[in-house]
C-alpha cells in the first residue's frame, strides 16, 4: 500500500471517528461545540490542494449527513464542507508552511462553514439564534487554529518519513 493511500485511509477513519464523536457529544450537552470534522477537511485541502480538498470535504460532508441524526436535506453538509476544502486548498503552499498561515486558513474554513450553515438553515426555515451561531463559529475557528497546524505537520512528517 502506498503512502498516499495509507494517509487516505487514516484520514477517512478520522473523519468517521470525528463525526461519531460530534454526535455523541452533542447528545450529552446543550452547549455549543466546535466542528470536529472541519480541521480534517481544512488540513486535507492545505496538504493536497483545492481539488482534493473539495473532494475530501464532499466525502466528509456525506459522512456527517448520514451519521444520525444526519442532515434534514441530504447533501447540504457535503456542499458546505466541499466549499471549506476548496478554500483551504486554495491556501496551499509548497514546502514548509508557516503555522500562522495554516491557522489563518483553518479559521477561514470555520467562517466559511458557519456562513454555509447559516444559508442552509435560512433556506430550510430553521430558527436563527445569532449567539449560538457565533459561539459555534468561534469555537470551530479556535479548534481549527489549534488542530489544523498539528494535522498538517503530522501529515508532512509522515510523508517525509515514508518517502
UniProtKB/TrEMBL annotation:
Transmembrane segments annotated in the record for this chain: 6-25, 37-64, 70-89, 101-120, 132-153
Assigned keywords, A-Z: Membrane, Transmembrane, Transmembrane helix
Protein name: Rod shape-determining protein MreD
Organism annotation: Knoellia koreensis
Source taxonomy: Bacteria, Bacillati, Actinomycetota, Actinomycetes, Micrococcales
Amino acid at each position: 500500500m502506498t503512502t498516499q493511500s495509507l494517509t487516505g485511509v487514516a484520514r477517512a477513519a478520522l473523519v468517521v471517528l470525528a463525526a461519531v464523536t460530534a454526535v455523541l457529544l452533542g447528545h450529552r450537552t446543550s452547549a455549543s461545540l466546535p466542528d470536529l470534522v472541519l480541521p480534517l477537511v481544512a488540513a486535507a485541502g492545505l496538504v493536497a490542494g483545492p481539488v482534493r480538498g473539495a473532494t475530501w470535504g464532499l466525502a466528509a460532508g456525506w459522512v456527517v449527513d448520514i451519521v444520525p441524526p444526519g442532515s434534514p436535506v441530504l447533501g447540504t453538509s457535503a456542499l458546505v464542507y466541499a466549499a471549506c476544502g476548496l478554500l483551504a486548498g486554495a491556501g496551499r503552499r509548497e514546502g514548509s508552511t508557516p503555522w500562522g498561515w495554516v491557522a489563518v486558513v483553518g479559521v477561514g474554513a470555520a467562517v466559511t462553514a458557519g456562513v454555509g450553515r447559516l444559508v442552509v438553515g435560512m433556506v430550510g426555515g430553521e430558527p436563527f439564534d445569532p449567539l449560538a451561531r457565533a459561539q459555534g463559529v468561534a469555537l470551530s475557528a479556535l479548534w481549527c487554529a489549534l488542530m489544523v497546524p498539528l494535522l498538517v505537520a503530522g501529515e508532512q512528517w509522515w510523508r517525509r518519513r515514508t518517502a
